[in-house]
Every structure is written in structure tokens, then in C-alpha cells.
Amino acid sequence: MKELLSHSPQPQPTKSGAGPSDAALVLAARAGEEWAREALFRRYARLALGLAYRILPRDVDVDDLVQDSFLYAFQRLDRLSNPQAFQAWLSSIVVRTAGKRLRRRRLQVRLGMLQSEPVDLDQIVSRSAPPDVAAELRAIYGLLEKLSVEERIALVLRRVERLEIPEIAEHMGLSSSTVKRRLNAAEARLESAVKP
Amino acid sequence: MNTPPSRYVQPEVREARVERLWQNVSHRLEARPSRVWRWVVLSSALAAGAAGAVLWLKMPATLNPASGGGEHAVLADAKLETKSDELSVTLGDGSSVKLGSQSEVQVESGHASSISLHLSRGELRCDVTHRDSRKFRVVAGDVEVRVVGTQFRVKTTPGPSPRVEVSVARGVVEVVSARRPGVVARVAAGQSWIQDAERASEKSEPAAPVEAPSSEPAKQDAPLPSAVPVVPSGRELFEKAAESRRAGDAAAAAHAYEELLRLHPGDGRASLAAFELGRLRMDRLGDLPGAIAALERAVAMKIGPSFREDALARLVSIYASQGNLAACRRARDRYSSSYPAGVHAAAVATRCGAQ
Fold first, then answer.
1. Domains and CATH numbers, chain B
2. Cis-peptide, bond into residue B217, ω within 30° of zero
3. How do residues B261-315 score in pLDDT, each as one tens digit?
């Protein structure tokens, strides 16, 4: 990225070496600067891929989801009121786009246009995970397909991403009370699932 | 512990993957039509290539989206022809097609619900936006490519043995050739399909697979394999096996798993397929030697811990039932050393005769 940002008229890297701020990149991208969009993409592609994967743990879905999310974000940069908040804004776009995809996929499954594919828990959860964390993650991912879309996303954001209720509400575009209800339902299912 | 669990659920992200994604995003951003010309747009490449391109457009009056109706024409009855330059066209739904030099394509159907292109010569690259309600197909010679929502290339090669090549960079397409009636080849990302006139006329069954699909999409300019690879993907075979199992057809399910292991030994589902194949052979098909082979393969492929434990326990059971006590003890020791407190530990300890 340093090389990418070294050409005029791009801003020079900051003293910290972190490169231009998100706000500077967003403003440049809004002005139509391709390099700024690329810099934003490369800065947050891994974050978006990780978040998308944890919500939709299938690689084939993840790439499309991330592409669509960035495309949506770049086409609507003028709607971002705080340019420095690009990361959180992008995350919320990934979360909401994932929700749409999940709803569409479930509809396709119900209509017989798509087959529900089991998730390989051993592939999702890293082998380096401590046993208690691995067990919790396995329980969560083993349960996801049985939850509603909102319950599923809320559970992942809470138990895997460790977000607070207000953050989850913002990402999902729901009220905090709705998120709490979804989480309560999901947690109850999770509890009954892990009972011996 | 303050480490968030998300750290332990991470996709494998290589630089090549990020690069590929950026190329797709960048391309789609460039291809995005303006609001005024949302329904019919010729991209800037058209102007750039005007010197070498001839464009025939016979657009009907229904082109204007404001004219009403449920379907809006995109590019009806258009004929695109290039000489020395390439030509890019962006369709109303964001899909884009790029015509190579010395190429010609006719738009046979250009409605929002159905787009049909006929490539009469040369090369056509398509990046198709997936829409459930719209059919997108490309016809080249006697080959039909049905698009599911993808980025792919169709190339015709003239000569005494004309042939059509299809390579897919993203998504999936279905290819139907008139030379093989009733055979539909699904070509996934990273795979190529090549029509070989002589061989295609000799055989009527699906072509033999040649290569396992790559996890990365094929580079569009990469040389294509020289055979006729029509390879069902690992996912398709896994789904086929699951479907056969639900239908109670254990033999068909086992065959699908065998095909998956043969065609896609590096697929992420391969180890699970080997394990399931072992279970089927052991529990349903009575093929104990085959079950041993499959379960040993699953263990060697580093299947997930819970499956590995079950596979090892099953091996102990099979060897014991065969009276092969030496192999039984080896399998028992493998199990006991790996899972001293495993769920099968007590049962395994009693097998194979002397401790």
C-alpha cells in the first residue's frame, strides 16, 4: 500500500507509517480518486472477509458478499456522514448484506432451488483455539442453521465478535431491545443445544 | 482470557485472493452505468475502440425504461463486430461483455428476463451479475453456455476442426453441446471446458475429468488445458452423495464419494468424504476391505478430531471382526494413544484379544 500511496496527488504517508487516515481516503474516493478506493479496499478487505466468513462460513459466499459490500460502500460514500467511521460503516454493510443473502438462500432452499449444505465445524474453528473456546464456537456454529437470520447474526456478533448490544443494534439496523430479544432466543437455543 | 473468539474463526486470506477481489470490485465499479443510461450503456471502451470496431445497433423503441412495461430491452438485435480492437459493452443490469479483436457477436434476445448472445467468431468475455429472474446464455457454434451468474470467457477457434472453449473465472456456468445431446456440463470457477470436435463425436457420455478445480479462478489469459475437462465440482459430488443417501441409495452415495476423492483429492470435503465412504461401506455395503481403505485414508488426510476418533474406533472394530488381530492391536493402540479418555475408549480396550 505504501507504493500505492506514493504517487502524486496522493497524500504522503503519515509519520506513524499508517498512511492516510480513513477520512482522507474517503474524501479522496468521493472525489473519484481510484487509488483512494483501492487503498480503502486493501486496508479493510481482510476485516470484511473475516466478518463475512464468521457470519457465512462458506468461502464461495464470502467473496461475493465482500465484493458486493465494497461495491455498495463505494457507490454510497457520500452518505457516510463521518468519513473517519468508514470501518464501522463498512462492517454494518457487510452484516446487512449477509442478512439479505441468508434470507435469500433460505428462501431458495425452501423452494428447492438450493440444497442446505452442512458446515464442517472442524474446518471453521482453528485448531489453535483453547478447548473451552473451541467447544463454544462449535456449539454456536452447529446451531446457526437452526436460528432465524436475525438470531443468527446477533449471536455471532455477540458471542464471536464480542460486540456490545448497542454496536450490534447499529450494525444490524435494529433497536437495542429487538437485538436483546433475538439474542435471548438464540442464547436459549444454544443453552438447550449444549445441555448433555 | 481477553482474546475474542473471532480470532479462532478466520478464513484463509492470501494476497492473491485480495487482489482478485479488488480486480472484480474495480471492474464492477467501472462497469456501473450512470443513472441516465442505466438501461443501455456502452462503456468508455467503446469510444476507445471505435477506430477498430464496427457496431450495429437496431434498438427498438422500448429501450427507454420510462416507456413502461415489465421488461425493458437491453440490447435487442444488436450486432457487435470488432476488427483490431476490443469492445466492451455494459448491459443494463450491470453485467458486462467484452468482445475480443476479430470477433463478432449477435444479440439474439436482449430483455431484462432473457439475454442471449450468439458468438459467431472470436472471443467473448462476460461478467454477469446474478439475477434469479433473468436467463443469460451465450451460443457459440453448436455449444450453449448457460450462465448462473459469473465471470467467464467463450472462445471460438475456426479451422478444419472448429472448437469452442469456455473458461470460468468466477461462479458457475452450464455448457450444452449439440454433439452430446442431453449432457450438461457444469463448469465452476477455475475450470475450463473445451470442445474437441473429434473426441466429442466419438463419445456420448460425459467427458473424462482431467484436472481438479483450483481454489483460485483461472487467469483469463492463462493457457487452457488441452483435453476435454468436464468435471463435476467437489461440492456437486458431495451434494449428490447426500442426495443419494437421503434417497436410501447407499451404492450411489458411495460412488459419488469415490468420485469426489478421485477427482478432487485436495478439496476441503475430501477427508469427510473418505470418512463417510468408510461408514457406508462398513454399515451399508458390507465392504469391509473397502471400508478399511476409506477410513485409513480419512485418518491420513487429517480429518477433524471427532471424525478421526470415530474412524480409528471403526478400524479397530473391522479388524477385530476380520480376525486380523495384529492390525486390530495397532489400530487400538493408535486410538488409545490419541484418545485415552475418548468416547470409544472402553469398547476399544476390550477388542483384539490380549492387552
1. 14-231 (2.60.120.1440), 235-349 (1.25.40.10)
2. no
3. 888 888 778 888 888 898 888 888 888 888 898 988 888 887 777 678 788 888 8
CA–CA dist B318, B305 (Å, integer): 20
Alpha helices in A21-58 (DSSP H): 22-30, 34-55
User: Are B52 and B85 spatial neighbours (Cβ–Cβ below 8 Å)?
Assistant: yes
Domain A119-196 has CATH 3.40.50.300: no
A119-196 matches A8-117 in CATH topology? no
Q: What is the largest CA-CA distance in chain B?
A: 89
In B, which residues are within 8 Å of A59 by CB distance?
11
φ/ψ (deg, to 5) at A120: -85, 100
ipTM confidence score: 0.85
A120 inside 8 A of chain B by CB: yes
Identify the architecture of domain A8-117 in CATH. Orthogonal Bundle (1.10)
In angstroms, the CA B353 to CA B122 distance is 71
Distance from CA of A80 to the nearest CA of B (A): 18
Report CB contact under 8 Å: B304, A121.
yes
Q: Is B142 exposed, middle or buried (0-12, 13-18, 19+ CB in 10 A)?
A: middle
Spans of chain B, pLDDT less than 70: 1-2, 31-79, 84-85, 88-94, 109-113, 130-134, 148-149, 160-161, 180-182, 196-231, 306, 354-355
Find the closest chain B residue to A135 by CA distance.
B5
Going from N- to C-terminal start, the domains of chain A cover: 8-117, 119-196
What pTM value is reported for the model? 0.43
User: Which among A39, A34, A6 has a CA at the least distance from the CA of A22?
Assistant: A39
Cell output for A101: 443473502
Q: Do A41 and B4 touch (CB under 8 A)?
A: no
A38 and chain B: CB distance < 8 Å anywhere?
A: yes
